[in-house]
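Example record

One chain of 277 residues, shown exactly as stored in the release files.
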Amino acid sequence: MNPSGGLRWHWRAWRSAALWSPTSTQIGHWLASVQPSAKHLLLLGPSAGWMLPTAWLLRFESIHAIDIDPAARFLFGWRHGPALKAAGIRWHYQTGDALTALPRLLTAHPRACVLLDNLLGQLRFHAPPWQDPMLFTSLQLADIKRLLQGREWGSVHDLLSGPTHGLPPEQDFPAARHSVVTHGAEPQADVAWLAAAKPQGEWLDHLTDQLFPGGTPVQDMAWAFSPNYWHWLQAGWVQPVTFLANAAPEPTHEHIAWRQLPLLQNTFAFDHPGTES
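Predicted structure tokens for this chain:
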């Protein structure tokens, strides 16, 4: 998959609307619960906004979007433009590298909140050949968090992705999982809820698990990118001043049926305890 979009990506997104619908609905519910005080939005890396609800965009007075994919501007306008225009919302879509432009955009829009829309999970794919993807992603995320200090901001991004057996016809799609970021928590407790998709083989670590500050409320969502290849998305919203010292700890899970084994620092393997290795 081209991490920066392209016509092949847009064609796949358009054709996958029904398959992605449960995740799009969950993203919509999460965004509906987000109540930013800012009236202006910086929207970073949204592509065409294939899984972004127009209804949430209508809460703002102006929107400035930026994506590196040159086709994204036209398709975003096709999907969301008529409703934005009807509501009198000013919007501008720029073609460019959202993260390179971030310091300039923050200066130009000092009162805007920021949403990174399925952007940061792709960072590891943009590491230069001479740099370790883990180090590159860690440095990029640290710089982004530094720049966003004092802002209302949120992100939807990949945590893990990999092959699955998929849901049987009678199986409900996994519900979104709500939690609070507690760095260093036992990873097995985090993957138990995804067992319905029957993950198998090696899963890719997108290296984004340290993005949000400790205590940030987050929502984990399963995304059936294809019937047998799923992504684990995480969404969170950070307020400029948040005091959550007494936030409830990460819930624990007992009788976990699936096992997570770290491999090669950048991948994970899933197997069922009832199968032979």
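Notes: Helices lie at 7-15, 17-33, 54-57, 72-86, 102-108, 133-147, 187-191.
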